[in-house]
């Protein structure tokens, strides 16, 4: 597929490029996976790879499995004879190796009959796309890297934002998938799994996410006349567990729910308990004070009697 660049500047070629991108890359309105691009002029294998780079493609086509090989065979423009398409596999140190990835996948049905024949100097690979030849269509042939063929490239779609920073992006035909990180799901790992719904009878829950998503926080408060027993702020951790903090400073102890959650308690029972405690305390104080004064008064009444008795005894003597 040609693009506007040093090699090709024909408007009809640019139109062909976009048509192929639409055919190969679209997937029901979803994000595209790998897209495939080919030149309309021939070049040697080295120039074919450079053509991919010059035109902002990732590299020469790297075929991952037989399914992708068959897909390319079916969608690439048909050729009735040589030249065909250079692909990104080359013999390196005696091993057929995919450039850019160092992969060594070669399927059981990849090679055309009697290929590779391993003739001297045949260290690059072309793919036959000849729908009139069912025996060789989609098969590979080793050939001299200096021969002229069409360049076949791919452009990947994974980038740093493909999985919203929450997963690992894997390219697939016409699409990509994300390997989820803990606490996330969805095509692009964009949906955070949430904690269990949070409710507070006789109170209010104000959350940063309506679905109680991972990493969201909630502020808890009670209606007038009620007292909050528990942490006033909780957050949903990546393991989908509500956590809270006791106290108002950063040194407070982290609290993980394992039993009763925060509740709103009415002030009336608390006031009744406090009032009862106060009355009991006051009653004890009054009783203690009354007994103390009574003992003190009794002691004062006994002191004069003791003095008179002592004086009488002295006079008699």
TrEMBL record:
Record organism: Salmo salar (Atlantic salmon)
This protein's UniProt keywords: Disulfide bond, EGF-like domain, Membrane, Signal, Transmembrane, Transmembrane helix
Gene: LOC106560653
Signal sequence interval, chain numbering: none
Residues of the C-type lectin domain: 31-154
Residues in EGF-like domain copies: 154-190
Transmembrane domains' residue ranges: 270-290
Protein name per Swiss-Prot or TrEMBL: L-selectin
């Amino acid at each position: 597929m040609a693009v506007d660049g040093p090699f090709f500047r024909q408007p009809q070629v640019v139109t062909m490029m976009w048509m192929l991108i639409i055919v190969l890359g679209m997937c029901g309105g979803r994000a595209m996976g790998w897209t495939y691009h080919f030149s309309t002029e021939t070049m040697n294998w080295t120039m074919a790879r450079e053509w991919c780079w010059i035109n902002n493609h990732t590299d020469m086509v790297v075929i991952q499995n037989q399914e992708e090989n068959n897909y390319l065979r079916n969608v690439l423009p048909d050729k009735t004879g040589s030249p065909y398409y250079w692909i990104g596999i080359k013999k390196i140190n005696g091993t057929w190796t995919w450039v850019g990835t160092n992969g060594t996948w070669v399927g059981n049905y990849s090679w055309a009959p009697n290929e590779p024949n391993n003739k001297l100097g045949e260290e690059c690979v072309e793919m036959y796309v000849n729908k009139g030849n069912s025996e060789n269509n989609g098969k590979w042939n080793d050939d001299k890297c200096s021969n002229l063929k069409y360049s076949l490239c791919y452009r990947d779609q994974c980038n740093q934002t493909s999985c919203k920073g929450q997963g690992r992006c894997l390219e697939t035909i016409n699409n990509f998938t994300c390997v989820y990180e803990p606490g996330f799901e969805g095509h692009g790992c964009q949906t955070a799994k949430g904690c269990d719904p949070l409710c507070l009878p006789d109170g209010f829950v104000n959350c940063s996410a309506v679905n109680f998503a991972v990493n969201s926080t909630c502020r808890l408060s009670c209606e007038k006349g009620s007292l909050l027993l528990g942490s006033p702020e909780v957050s949903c951790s990546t393991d989908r567990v509500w956590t809270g903090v006791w106290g108002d400073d950063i040194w407070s102890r982290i609290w993980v729910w394992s039993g009763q959650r925060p509740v709103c308690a009415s002030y009336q029972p608390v006031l009744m308990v406090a009032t009862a405690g106060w009355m009991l305390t006051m009653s004890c104080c009054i009783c203690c004070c009354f007994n103390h004064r009574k003992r003190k008064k009794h002691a004062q009444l006994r002191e004069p009697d003791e003095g008179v008795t002592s004086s009488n005894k002295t006079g008699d003597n």
